[in-house]
Every structure is written in structure tokens, then in C-alpha cells.
Amino acid sequence: MKVSADVFEAFMDCATKCWLRAVGEPTSGNAYAEWVNSQKESYRADAAKRLMADVAANECDVVPSAGNLKTAKWRVAVGMELCRSYASRKPAPAGTDGTLPPDNSSIVPCSTANLEASPSAGKVQEPLSLVACLHAVERVPSEGRGKLAQFTPIRFLYKSKLAKNDRLLLAFDAFVLSETLGRDVSAGQIIYGKDRATLRVNTSALVGDVRKSLGKIAALLSNPTPPDLVLNRHCAACEFQTRCRQKAIEKDDLSLLAGMSEKERKKFHRKGIFTVTQLSYTFRPRRRPKRRRDKREKYHHSLKALAIREKKIHIVGSPELKIEGTPVYLDVEGLPDDDFYYLIGVRIGNGASAIQHSLWADSMEDEKKIWREFLGILDSVEKPVLIHYGSYETIFLRRMSDRHGKPPTRSIPDATFERAVNLLSVVFAQVYYPCHSNGLKEVAKHLGFQWSDDTATGMKSIVWRQEWETSRAAAAKEALIVYNVEDCQALEVVSNCLFELRRVSSQVGNTPSSDVVNTSQLKREHPYGFKRNTFALPELDAINNAAYWDYQRERIYVKSNRSNYREIGRNARRARGLSPTKTVECARPRSCPKCSSPHFFKHTKSSKTVFDLKFMRHGIKRWITRYCFHNYQCQNCGAVFPPEEKCWARGRLGSEIIAYALYLNIELRLPQIHVDQNLNKLFGFQLPVGGVTHGIKERAANTYRGTYEALLAKLCSGRLLHADETKISIRGNDGFVWIFASTEEVAYVYSETREGDLLQTMLKDFRGVLVSDFYAAYDAIPCPQQKCLIHLIRDLNEDLLKHPYDEELKRLGSAFAVLLRAMVETVDRFGLKSRFLRRHLSAVDRFYRQIADVPLQSEIAIKLKDRLEKNRDKLFTFLMFDGVPWNNNNAEHAVKPFAALRQIIGGITSENGIRDYLVLLSICETCKYMGLDFLDFVRSGEKDIHTFRDSRPAAKARKV
Which of 126, 176, 262, 470 has the highest count of CB atoms within 10 angstroms of its CB? Predict the structure, then answer.
């Protein structure tokens, strides 16, 4: 296997390119790659001539023989060709860790036989034939007897910027030269760039990297088939670009997605995902948690693949693109290797009335001139908004400002640079076009824009510029200007598309004919969940119900096997045969309840069994009580009557098991069917599953209805009330639950709508301070109000993130934040005491006077100012009342347990059922707010929570 410097260089760019070069695969054509090769050759020839011109003719040699370098007499040699056999070991044997033999040792060409003879040799790859055509070699004669001449390889590179790969190529030359000489070549030189700068490289430090790469190349070339195809950034400059991309499209390879890293691609491969189509089926729309709504959505490769598969634009959220002024589209062409910008394209306005400017620089000396012309153009535009695509123009603005001077502070160009809009940042993670990358060319072509030259690219523009510099041909200059103008036009097309997407993002119906899909409206599928089917015919529904597991176990299989009948009978006998823990004999009555006669006799004997639990010190146990009693008949009047006092509960269940079931269902939020199963499993009851806890909840809600109404009455007549609302689904219909809270009480109220009628009815006599969000229904309550400042801060932060270049918004938001921060620090230090907080009222007045006098141009800043002024009387009420917080945390915290319970219910409850839930949840959360245990309260039999709190031993001790 022959490994030349070209093959070694290709390996550093791409494994596929290395294999194709090694086997001599024909190239598919690439204008930029061909130009690079011509530049290399011409620069190498010119640099070699210059190097030889500085040396005496008798000390130069062209294409010398490498047969005996030790006896060479030349000082500089050009075009020396070396060829050595090399075999890599894996792992390397002891003593061959990359160090070279002593200077006076000779190297015998490696062979497989030689390596196999060594007992310490590791696994051997097939020998490589290393071929190096050294651009030049400098020979430094020996300085005395016993000293050897030193050889320094030299490489010529036309580029002005060097990378690590360029140093490794020189290290490869030095490695082959050292193998030929039989001693270490510790240094080399690179002559590069138009100025022919010289860089000395310590090649001995790179020997390990060269050996490692050669081992990988040997393994790569030992395979008769090419490696797995992977497209990368180097493809644009590769001579096999067309061939590889065509094969990638045929395979639908993941590497077609330009933004996917190698690590991410391997992760998908481990999951068995190898194509873009496969990846498209993995996208799942998800609701964003509230804590992440202020953060930018991450990029989803699966959504990009879905957009490509469906050939539709997919939107995440609402793309924020607001241009308040005259759009100025900017596209710049330059030579990255020289840091030289030679063409600035500026398009002002939209459509047919747009004005195009093309600022051309013949040389680097003209760069400052076109920069000044560009600033002058911006200065002449009314309210210019600079629009570009990608980071290239961002870097251009920064470098040119540093290189040729920034525009004057607060001038139009200065303000324009600060508010420049990068369309790529708007597209990224928000708009997924059905194309493999987010490049301007692919996106604009999808939107219908066509370049006059389909092959025009940024790489090809470099070739055109070099052709113009060489020949000064007008055609090359014209091609560049046309290409730049069309890029500006493409910018306008993409910008207009984003405007349209922002307008329709909230109206997209996601119909099959729609070309735009809003992911928030996609159906959230749960492929591993169990769902109830909806049938068009009742007969189909009946057939489906007969196939359920429980139905078949209880109605079908028992009829098919007689042993199942016996098993069911045994279970029933076990349930009836639970032995009582305690038997109670009821006392004989004193007289007949009808005629008061003491003369009566036993009539019939009866018993009552009550299933209950007994709470021990460190656990719970089953407790079954059987009450035995007689019915009696009066001798005087003949009336039949039971004992005077019944010491058992009304139903089969005792008070402790009822309290425990409520605790599991309401506080621990277990579904009712799971509570029933829990009681049967842990305590051996045979209660019917699916109805016991439901009945307990319904009876308990009726029992505590008075407690619930007392909580509501106290909240609506108190001095402080927090209010909030949230949605709930009840059998497909939307309803709303209102949350009312104070520092100690919580109550939940169900309403069919979100209208303010319920608030008006409940709070008509409320005269305390109402803390709420900015929902307009609260404004109609005639009482002092405090709006939740956390809501306002979150909205302000969202606007700042969406409009990072809006200086007016920043100044207004910063002033408000400074004002509020001082108040929060006072609260942290002294608490919610008005005598300390009132001192901030003067700062509030000063703040409003300042914003009233400031003229604003930004639409979003004007909206914030109007909101602050509209709610002035409701933003700082907490400064004037003791104990009034500046946020609505008491109500928002009470929303969380209801939200968790709502998720358990899953929309299958009834309206009466949700009202029962809310009664008990109000009791439970009030206990938590007051530091009480809900289970203890329910077990106590007490109806008033405040009385229960005062009756506890700790409360009595505090009173004493």
C-alpha cells in the first residue's frame, strides 16, 4: 500500500477521501479544488526558484538521488523523492515507543519477516510504502570529525494562515527523511504566504501523531471496500464532492444534516438510526415546562428530518423578527486567508423600489475607502435596520471597526450596528426548512429564489477573485458583483418569508394541504400508552368491551373451567370468614322507647361487622369489630326495638379506614382504584375495587362541606386574599378552578367559565388587599389590589431576550429592576412592614416622573411604559400595608397540588366529582398551610380546623 504526502493529507481531512486517493479513484470535479492544486504547484515552483537564487549554483541540486545522502555535497536540494517501507505495530513492542535509533545506526527496510522474527513484536499491519516528494531540503555540513550533517525538510505553502495539518505534513516529510537517513530529523521549515514568511517547526514532537495516523491509514487501506461515507465541512473543497454527496443522497445518510456532529451521529447509530427518514419518525412534540419558557428552544435534528420528509416548513414557537425602520440587506465577499474584504453588497428597501450598492476594492489599500462609503450609505438612510445572514458579516463589522475606525458614538451607523439582525439566529431552532442545512443558498432555493449561476458558492467566489487579480478580466469581476447582488436579493426573500411565518404562526391549522406546520399544534402521540378506542357503531363497542382482560377473567374463563368457579368460591368464603379482632356485646335497654314499660323480652338476635384499621405507635393493623345485639319486644304494647345506643358506624367501614383512604387519595394523590387495591392487598380485605374510595370521598365531602364554606367565608372577609385560576378538562369539556388563598387558608372553587361573574359574586363585600396576576377580571373588584410583580418581571425578561438590541427597552427595564431590587432588599431585611417600606414611595414617584418625560420610539418599550403607567396604583400597594407580599406565591403554590391531582384524574371525572375533590383538597392544603397533618385532622372527627389546631398539646402548652 502506497502512502504519499497527498494520501496522508487526505486522511487528515476525511477517511473516505484518503481511501479514494490511495486507490486512484477518478475525481468528480471541483473548481475550487482544482484552483487550490494549481496554486500549490505555482507557489511551490516560484518559491523553489527564489530559494535556489539565494544559494550558489554549485551548492544546489534539483531532484537529487536519495541513494547516499550521507555523502551529499549540496547545500539545498529541490524535488527530492524518498520511498521507504514501513510497518506499524499495535501495540508497539518494548523499546520501540516512537524513539529513533542512534545517529550512527543504519535503517534496514522493514519487512513482515523481520517483524515476525521478533518475539516482542505486536500485531503487524501490512507494510506501507511511504512516498515523500520533499519540496526542498537544506543540508547543514558537519562541524567536525564525528559530527554528522543535519538535514532540514522545507515545505512551501501558498496560504497565509497555517493550521495543525500543515505542520503534520511537514512532520510526515521529516519522518520519511529520518527513516531514510537512519537518524532523527528534529526540525523543519515552512515557507508560506505572499510575504514568504518562515516558520520553524519542531518535527520530533509530532512523530507520535504521524505514527498514529500511519497506523490508522494502514488499517483503512487494508480493507478492500471504502469506509462508511460521512459528509463533513471539508466536502466543499474536495475533488470527490459530487461523488460522495450523490451516494449520501442515495443512502439518505445522516451526515446530510449539516448541523449534526460526529458524536450525535454515532449516538443515533447506536440506537439503530442510520437514515434521515428513520430519524424523522423519532420526533415527539413536547410541552415546555414553565421554568424553561424564558429559554431558547434547543435544536432538534429529528424535527429537521421530519420537515425534509414531509417537505413542509415546521415552526417552533413564534419567530421573532421585527424591523422597525428601513431594511438594509448586507452581504460581504472577502478572502479569509488574507483577512481582506473586497466587496460590500448593500440593498436598501424591498421589491422593485430597492436600491443596490456594490462597493468594490481593487486592493487592500482600497478596503478603508469602501468601508467609509458603506458608513456614508447607512448615514443617509432613515432609521436603517441592518440585516445579514450568519456570523461572517458580524465579524466583518467588528474587524472593520477595529481596523479602520468605529462610527461616531450615537451616530446612525453606530446605532445600526448595535441593532443588526442576524436572520440565521431567527431561523435556528425556530424555523425548520425542508432542506439539509440552514445555509442561505439552500433556504432561498427552497423558497423559490434562483441564482443565475447554479454553481456559484463562497468557495468559487475566491477562485473568481484570484482570476481577476491575475488577469483583471471584466468577466470575473462582473460574476462576483452579480453573485453578491443575488445574495442580497436572497436575503430579502428569506426575510419576507420570516415575516410571513411570524404572522401566520398562530393561525396555522396543520391541514394536509398546508405548507407550514406549527409544532405546538401537532398531536402529542404516546405510542406506548394504553388508549380507549372510539367506535362509530355501538355493536363494535360491545364487541371491544367483551375483549377486556377483566371481563374475560370474570365472565368467560370461569365458565370455561370449573376449577375457576371453585377458586372464586374460596375467595368469597375467605372474605366472609375474616375473624373479628374484637367482639362487643351491646347492653340491654332500660325500658320500651314507645311506652316506657320495663317489661320486654328478647325477640331476635343480630350482629354487625365493621371493617376498620387501628393506628399503632409504629404502624397500622387490620381491626375488625363484631357487634352482637338483640332486638326486644315490649310485653305491654308489642313494639319491637333495638338497643338504645348503637356503638357502630352507619356503614361497613370504620372512621380510621375512611381517614386512611382519604389520606391516600387526596394528600398522596393515589387513584381511587389503587386505594381500593391497596386496602385489600395490605390488610386482607375483600372490598369491591372501584367503588369503595369513591363512596368514601363523596360522603366525606358532604361531611366537610360546612368546613369548606367556612374557609371560603373567612377568605372573602379577610384582610388579604391571593387569587389565581387554572384550567381543567371534564369529559372533554373545559372548566376552570379558581384558587383563593391567604397565609393560612386555601379554597378551590369550580366554575364552568373563566368569566368574572364568580369573582363579582364571591368578593362583592371584600375590602382587604387582593393579590393577583394581570387578568382583567380581577380589576373589577372594588378593593386595594397588588399585582404579582414576578409575572411582570418574567414578561419583561422575555421581551429583553427577544429584543436584545432594543436600547430603550433595556434602559426602561433596568430602571424598573433597580427600583424593585431596593424594595426586595428592604423586605429581606425588615419583612413586610409598611413603616420600613413606605420610604420607597418617593423613589416610585421619581421613577414615574422620569419615564413620563422620556420620548420612546421602540414599540415594545412603549408597551412596557403603558403597562407600568396603567397599573401604577396596583404595582406598589405592598408598600402601604403590613403583611402584603409583592408576589402571588401563596396562590401559585396552591395550584401545584391541584395540577398533580388533575393529572391523576385525567379528565374522566364528573362535575360533581371534581367539586367533591375540591372540598377535600381545600381541607388538605389548609392543614398544610397551618402546619397540621391532614390525616390527623380527619382521624380526629373535628370539623373546624382552627379548633383542631388549638386543641393540640403543643398549642395548649403555648397558651399556658
Answer: 176
**DSSP string computed for 383-447:** SEEEEE-SSHHHHHHHHHHHHH-PPPTTSHHHHHHHT-EEHHHHHTTTEE-SSSS--HHHHHHHT
Amino acid at position 935, single letter = L
Query: Which backbone phi and psi does 904 adopt, to 5 degrees?
Result: -70, -40
Assess contact for 326 and 384: CB atoms under 8 A. yes
User: Phi, psi at residue 802, to the nearest 5°?
Assistant: -80, -25
Inter-axis angle of helices 692-703 and 655-662, to 10 degrees? 100
- What is the Cα–Cα distance from 393 to 164, expressed in whole angstroms? 26
The whole-model pTM stands at 0.57
pLDDT tier, 913 (very low <50, low <70, confident <90, very high otherwise)? confident
CB 657 within 8 A of CB 614: no
Domain residue extents for the chain: 2-221, 326-504, 582-652, 704-785+889-951, 789-879
β-strand partners of 158: none
Q: Confidence class of residue 69 from pLDDT cuts 50, 70 and 90?
A: confident
How far apart (Å, rounded) are the C-alpha atoms in residues 802 and 371? Answer: 30
Would you state the cell numbers that stand for residue 203, as one nine-digit string?
A: 518535527
Cell numbers that stand for 198 in this block = 518562515
Least confident residue range of 46-50, 63-67, 489-493, 603-607 = 63-67
Task: Tally Cβ neighbours within 10 Å of residue 598.
Answer: 11
Half-sphere exposure for 800 (CA within 13 Å, toward CB): 14
Q: For 704-785+889-951, CATH number?
A: 3.30.420
Convert the pLDDT of each residue in 268-293 to its tens digit.
Answer: 998 889 999 999 999 988 776 666 66
Tallying the residues shown for the chain, one arrives at 960
Determine the Cα–Cα distance for residues 619 and 634; give it in Å rounded to an integer. Answer: 47
**CATH architecture, range 326-504:** 2-Layer Sandwich (3.30)
The domain defined by 2-221 folds into Lambda Exonuclease; Chain A (3.90.320)
| Of the candidate ranges 15-29, 485-499, 822-836, 945-959, the one whose mean pLDDT is the lowest | 945-959
80-83: long-range contacts (C-beta < 8 A, 24 or more apart)? Answer: 80/133, 80/134, 80/137, 81/131, 81/132, 81/133, 81/134, 82/130, 82/131, 82/132, 82/133, 82/134, 82/176, 82/177, 82/180, 83/129, 83/130, 83/131, 83/132
Does the pLDDT value for residue 392 go beyond 90? yes
Q: What is the DSSP string of 150-171?
A: EEEEEEEE--SS--HHHHHHHH
Strands 746-751 and 733-741 turn out to be antiparallel
- Same CATH fold assignment for domains 326-504 and 704-785+889-951: yes
803 close to 862: Cβ distance less than 8 angstroms: no
Single out the residue of 197, 150, 196, 157 nearest to residue 174, CA to CA.
Answer: 150
